[in-house]
Design goal:
This protein has 176 residues and is an alpha+beta fold. It has three helices and nine strands; from the N terminus they run H-E-E-E-E-E-H-E-E-E-E-H.
Amino acid sequence: MCFLSLIACKKTTPLEAAFQCEQVTAYAELETVRDFRSLFAIPLPKSWKTGLHYSASQSSIYSADTTKQLTETTIIDIAYIHQENTFDDAFKSNIRKNTAAKDLKEIFTSELLFANKNSYVTLASGNKAGHPYQILQIFSQVNDQNFTHIKAEVYGEKAVTERFCKAITLLKKLTF
């Protein structure tokens, strides 16, 4: 399980500071992946398996290193959602209810800037598919009509913080 602290570190984003990401080995051989509608792009490792999805209500990118065991990889899922949203008390309560309904325990929540957007961040843990599981969710307000729902998922107990920090190094390069 990760231990989180809100101690700020130099040259880090608030999210990196929360995970105490100081010296992270970056992924190598990245390629920029754009969603179907070219609403956003993110650099991802070329070796990862990546899928794109779109519908009338959203456009998304899903990616993971499928050469590793589930308990050693990181899963990233980014959805650009065409819907008005505010991070008010009702929104936060709904997130807490969804977390509890999945038998997950909320570890951390915060409002912060992510990718220069007002964002609401949650980290929750529990068990999924028979493994210890943690999910980092970042909801970012893109504009009045759209928001993103970003997830980084980690199974198992090995190098959890390192995997989240490496995921954050990718996610902070997200562009709109």
